[in-house]
Fold:
Amino acid sequence: MGSFQNPLIETPARRLPGRIAIIGAGTIGPDIGYYLKSALPDLQLVLVDIAQASLDRAVARFGEYARKAVARGRMSEAEAARVTAGVQATTDYAALAGADWVLEAATEDLALKRRIFAEVEARIAADALITSNTSSLPAAQIFAGLRHPGRATVTHFFAPAWRNPIVEVIAAAATDPAVVEYLRWFFCTTGKVPLVTRDVECFMLDRIFDNWCNDAALCLERATAAEIDSVAAEFVSAGPFQVLNMANGNPIIVETNTLQAEVEGEHYRPAPIFRSVASWATQPIGRTVTVPEATAAVVRDRLRGVLWSQTVDILDREIGTAADLGLGCRLALGFREGPLDLMAAAGEAEVRRVLQRFAVERPGMPQPRRALADYQRFERGLLVDEVDGVRIITLRRPEAMNALHDGLNDEILAVIRRHEADPAVRGFVLAGYGPRAFCAGADIGRFPTLLGDAAAAAQYGRDCSRVLVHLDAMSKPVVAAINGVALGGGLELAMRCHALVATRGARLQFPEITLGILPGIGGLAVPYRRWPQAAALFHDMLRAARRMDAGQALAAGILSGLADDYAALIRLAVSQVHALAGQSRPALDAPVAVPAFGAAAATGFSREVTALIEDAVQRAAAAPTLAAALEIGYQAFGRTACTAAAREGIAAFAERRKPDFARTG
Ligand code: COA
Structure:
């Protein structure tokens, strides 16, 4: 099996596990267990601990989590019953027998872990997986005594592990590469985001977190813990001391930074104060104190200094990739922006100044080994693979179900431009990362700034369309591989591809009307011009957010094929690219007749926006060229951005409530 950036492109030979044992019933062990049972409800899960009380608490927690999920409508009663059934909590290692995978989440103690793995190996099959949830101890050390080390590695989760998507998967020297591939596939297919990391002390993300905390503590000569947390709030949702208080983290920093100091040098030595303090005097998370600007400047420089120093070190030593580092910092560590985005926003001169100051204050800490611009050359939201001469471009924004914004659209365009002139490239496939979504539309988080400004909203539509207009004119085929949902702007992107294929469970929808807006980047024009036979269906989709399942879309001629699973979908999409190569595409310039809308059924959606949609669809259909039809869409989007309905719909999405369009009209 080859190694693809998108872990789902190939299905591994090893099957899904039927029985997993977790050793350690503290906090993270059971949380990992709950994630596993939620993803695979029929899994047999064994929780092993030396303390019966911990096991009892773990089982109680499973029940609480499942009850909450039912109360929030995230799980049915029947699903909750399956998730909580089949869990064996025991102090007896004999229960490991028959496990396909043993995951250790015990205390961070090398000797203890080695004893546990010796016990484990004596009881399970030679090819059963063994992984440890250590946050810092290299796999080479903890698994040194195993008889079959090829099946073992570190899988490092982040709190709360049942919900936090990030898992570091360590590519250790002794680990069989097929095991790393399998773990990446397993985590991705069960909704996690695996980040492959080199087997060094503290891997990738704890190097950021531990040193961020350590340098914060070294800064205490110049500012209080509350002041440092308040400055850190510019970058993270919780400051270093707030997190240390919450996680009882002081001993962890002592341990992990001592480990780094022993291997990499004295500059990593933990701040002595960690050994004297149990809890820091700081504000609760979310609250800040006023910091005098001179103090704030010192702290800000120091925090950015350590962050950027670790960032360049991680990239120079290939501990992880730039895109993974950004994702991990945001999703696992709570950074508002990834460190490379912060560096890009600060500009090279400022980054150089901060790092030079850091070099003076912290001699020995890593400094860039390359030109700063070099570190910025990576795709932030895309993975790019190659299958049989076809570039597979995977949208990866797991925090927003791969939702698009203008920057991401431009990134797709840049990748296409980079490869399309290459005679070895036969075409492209667009796919979505993970099991749930091709793309959940335009990023709604970006909308509030557009509300009330018709010209800015229309321009945003044009900006997001640069890639779509490019697709219209391309001669090399681009095929959309729709796995899961294709919503709104995601569906508009797919509909501009030269062919669309989907998994059987896929769903196409224009949910914009539920937000009080309309699809502004082609959705009002392209479907009617391309599949006029399905016009009545599109009317319903636009006015009532009607969902179209994959079977209906195939019957209507919108999809050109269905696949059973993700890997089969990619194969189908690649074969479509091959089949379409060299074929000319029908121009969509001619006006098209669309049926009248007729009276709308009472939908509860905004009447004003419904009227805007009906009017724009009719005018776009009559427009003399596709470009003119698209322009009608951009402008209609601009008009909806000024409606009270849009304000209400977008606020309701952010607040996770039902919008009330009766009030807005
Ligand atoms: N833009 C930004 N974020 C989005 C998004 C979008 N279009 N679609 C989903 N997300 C985010 C959610 O806010 C959520 O983030 P959180 O975990 O930080 O709260 C995360 O993705 C997962 O979505 P969630 O709503 O929790 O999953 P779900 O299974 O309950 O619902 C959807 C899935 C797709 C039905 C729902 O997310 C949705 O309706 N999204 C909006 C789709 C839309 O209207 N698209 C058109 C935009 S023009």
